Amino acid sequence: MATSVAAELPRPLTDADFHAVDPAKARIGQLLFYDKILSGNRNISCGTCHHHDLGGTDGLSLGLGEGGTGVGLKRTAGTGDDRIRKRIPRNAPALWNLGARDIRVLFHDGRLEVSDIYQNGFNSPAEEWLPQGLDTIVAAQAVLPLVAQFEMAGNPRENEIAGAIHDRIDTAWPILAKRVRIIPEYGQMFVDAFDEIGAPEEVTIVQIANALGAFISSEWRNFDSPFDAHLRGDAPLTGASARGMELFYGAANCASCHAGPLMSDQGFHALGLPAFGPGRTRRFDPMPRDVGRMGETDALEDAYRFRTPMLRNVALTAPYGHNGAYPDLASMIRHHADPVTARTIWTRDMARLPAAPWLQEIDFVIQTDTREMARQAAVLDIEPRALSDAQVADLEAFLHALTGVTALTRPLGRPDAVPSGLPVD
Fold first, then answer.
1. Going from the N-terminus, what domains does the chain have, and what CATH number goes with each?
2. CB of 25 closer than 8 Å to CB of 211
3. Residue segments in the chain with a per-residue pLDDT below the cut of 50
4. 402 φ, ψ to 5°?
5. Range list of β-strands (E), 57-200
């Protein structure tokens, strides 16, 4: 089927668009990704919140990090002294195609960017203490959750990692690196895979991060969807997905932000999503709100704006939005079409928040702050678009056409066991 917007369609992705990956390093990264040895209390891994069975996410609106048990919708908030102290303030971002060379900014607020401001290659929360030698922005991203209190590090006085990061962020990484390298299997794997490593005791957080980055970059690379086949001229889209593509690149104006081969402009936009959760608070701003990009730049014009996500395999990564406000694609599409009405009719049960009774007063308290709600409602970067139910269904069909044929068959997958001997989620 020919399309009237063919000139606006992106070029096809190819392997040349991605960083090259050493398979031996990716294999180490696969094991570390699911090894709880990298968490302060040895009870959570990267894979807990970015699980293969859940398309590289956790299936929750706001994750349950340190202290939680289980995976996905079955994950619970823990009990007693080990229970979670706070929900993760934002939805676990998808990992698909993060190894693309063109990606220069990560996280919902863009707090990690390719930059030489600190002479280590990146502008990150670790500032000048981020180590040099990280291969890619994906490797740089991988080390940050390890030293985040509510994600993987744990609470003060619980373990040596949590204690170290309260002195300075970089003091925990050598401790984690030693945990890994003294495990004989890991030590030998690093010696075999990294040219600069002659003995296990030489392994640092840099090699660990580069292994994790290699795994994420290769494991979640995927561009064999029906839409990709259409772009290559192999098998044109038809029916509802073709009509949805016409809308996406035409009257619905989705491609104004979801642009280019990666389907993201890597910019920041205010969508006016319903507000809830603990917020991403700052030391001088303890309110349970999320100011988005402004939290990184301190620029008022960036308030409530969040990074445009890439869309391949988006049908596998519900719920949607920076806080996971919407449980399905149709409701997210309707919000884009009429954000004011969607925000008004949104109900709390649409958020996937596993029970944590000791946090329930915090979960929705920001909605009682009328001034903050007015501030958020006043910032909106998308214009309403009248969409019929049929058009919403067509757009949803197109988004499903972004799911790769091999998306659920990953090169390495989840390991059955890891060298530390700790349980694998």
1. 6-12+223-400 (1.10.760.10), 19-219 (1.10.760.10)
2. yes
3. 1-3, 6-7
4. -90, 0
5. 105-106, 112-114, 122-123
